[in-house]
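Z., the sequence and structure:
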Amino acid sequence: GSIEKLVVPGGCVYAQSYILCTGVFTSSLLAPLGLELPLRPRRGQLVVTEPAPPLIQHIFLCARYIAAKYHPELLASAEDDALRLGVGLALEQTAAGTLLVGSTREFVDWDTSTTLEGIRTVLRHGARILPVLDKLHIIRTFAGLRPYTPDGLPYLGRLPGVDNLYIAAGHEGDGIALAPITGKLMAELITSGTTSIPLSEFAPDRFHQGKKQGGKPVISL
């Protein structure tokens, strides 16, 4: 089958090909088509400090930030709060001088609230690397949802059973950094059917084959 149209508020959009770059909402958009995709929301809590003099010139990432992404099973039963919450340091200073300090990796369904435990743990972990964090005022906290996949790799490619439907989702926190190469590869795939980098590791059907409903599918947003 193939997608006939995209239904949006106020009308419909018609195209030869459609691509879902819809992050954590991808699975809910595929469900009406009878397609299942292992993808879950995973919360990240972050802290923003008051402006400070120049302290760091680069982004700081600790290995645990990456380990928490690819091996959440190692954290689930941890007694240490930082491990249990999937806290791995991600620290950078903006042009305005504020410090962005993150973050947790938590499976809490669709909850985008921040928690005192999460924020305290993030700051405590960050202060081990940058002690001045203990002396800065916090001006904001926020949380967002990352699209988690079971193997930590995004879905890039055509959806099985639907000739003109593609997906680029599941980057879990790396989407902004990988957006340029993702866009390039998806453009190559849609326009020529081949890509400059093999996409087999990122195949949308690598976990299981989705089931397709009959008729002309319609995506509603």
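Residues 209-216 have pLDDT under 50 and may be disordered. The chain has two domains: 5-39+151-220, 40-148.

Let me know what you think.
H.
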